[in-house]
Specification:
Helix 1 runs parallel beside helix 6. Strands 1, 2, 3, 4, 5, 6 and 7 form a seven-stranded antiparallel beta sheet that branches. This protein has a three-stranded antiparallel beta sheet with strand order 8-9-10, with no helix packed on it. With 318 residues, it is α+β, with helices and mostly antiparallel strands. The mean pLDDT is 79. A hairpin with a 4-residue loop joins strand 8 and strand 9. The protein contains eight helices and ten strands. It folds into three domains: 111 residues, Calcium-transporting ATPase, cytoplasmic transduction domain A (Distorted Sandwich), CATH 2.70.150.10; 88 residues, no CATH class; 48 residues, no CATH class. The relative contact order is 0.11. The chain is elongated and about 105 Å long.
């Protein structure tokens, strides 16, 4: 029975943590990117993992920067660096040299892996890739942080040690009593002591705790929160206040048009972030508007299109 409970407990933990890892893997796939690089005087598309220091990369609005790059050209180039510095305001980049040693957020002639071009265009030479980038260094530092045991695991350790001590004391007392006072045969006595030890172990407790934590993981998943380790649920449940950086955590730091305000009429816009779906609706009506049938709106949209140099494309991850 104890073996069965242990197997069930291990399976529950494995399934829950593997589901979380798959969810995190899908997020990592969404973050993967390609790059436009100059090789042999030809502009080619290469995977970010194939870039090497010395490659010249072309940057355009909407691109996710694939490596740490020293800028050679910058045309009204602004970069969102919230993922690296926590600042939600786009940083204007330049190509002028910086003589002094400055913080990452003040290195205006560099763009960093994982950040996003919000406007403008530019070009630069790759100076670091993979684990050698600033983002890679942060990930390496995070990996070196020792994992602390949660209060629940600490209490479980204390309970296990207490139960073990009680069982040993009971077995010792029973051994002395039955051997000296009852003159029980040694073989029968050992079987009795082993049976007592097995019966005293709360073998169902780990499975019950795993099931309860699994229910907590499922509840959090319903709220779109991914939990990798089961004991984390207990730690999160003990919190009274959670302080979180909004940008990149609770929001995506991506602007979405919700309204068009013209001289003669206002319109509502449906859609979400960069997804190329949605409708333009009249302000107080649910019927969709055909822009081609509205000269003012059509001209407005054409001006926006001509003044926009970004490109929306769909990759394998959507």
């Amino acid at each position: 029975m104890i073996l069965g409970v242990a197997v069930i407990n291990a399976l529950i933990g494995f399934v829950q943590e593997s589901n979380a890892e798959k969810s995190l893997k899908s997020i990592e796939n969404m973050l993967s990117s390609s790059a436009q690089a100059l090789r042999n005087d030809t502009l080619v598309t290469v995977e970010a993992s194939m870039l090497v220091p010395g490659d010249v990369v072309i940057l355009r609005a909407g691109d996710r920067i694939p490596a740490d790059i020293r800028l050679l050209e910058a045309h009204n180039l602004r970069v969102e660096e919230a993922i690296l510095t926590g600042e939600s305001i786009a940083v204007t980049k330049q190509i002028a040299a910086i003589d002094d040693e400055v913080m990452i957020g003040d290195r205006f002639n560099l763009v960093f892996s994982g950040t996003t071009v919000s406007a403008g265009s530019g070009a630069g030479v790759v100076i670091a890739t993979g684990a050698d980038t600033e983002l890679g260094k942060i990930n390496h530092m995070m990996a070196d942080i020792k994992q602390h045991r949660t209060p629940l695991l600490v209490q479980m350790d204390k309970l296990g040690k207490a139960i073990f001590a009680i069982i040993l004391a009971m077995m010792a007392a029973l051994f002395v009593f039955m051997l000296l006072l009852r003159d029980m045969p040694m073989g029968e006595l050992l079987l009795s002591l082993i049976g007592l030890a097995v019966a005293a172990v709360p073998e169902g407790l780990p499975a019950i705790i795993s099931i309860i934590l699994s229910l907590g993981v499922q509840a959090m998943a319903g709220k779109k929160a991914i939990i990798r380790k089961l004991p984390t649920v207990e730690t999160l449940g003990a919190m009274t206040v959670v302080c979180s950086d909004k940008t990149g955590t609770l929001t995506m730091n991506e602007m979405t048009v919700k309204a068009v305000i013209l001289a003669d009429k206002n319109f509502r816009v449906e859609g979400n972030s960069y997804q190329p779906t949605g409708r333009i609706l009249a302000e107080h009506d649910e019927s969709a508007i055909d822009a081609a049938q509205n000269p003012v709106l059509s001209h407005f949209l054409r001006v926006i299109d001509l003044c926009n140099e970004s490109t929306v494309f769909q990759d394998e991850q959507g």
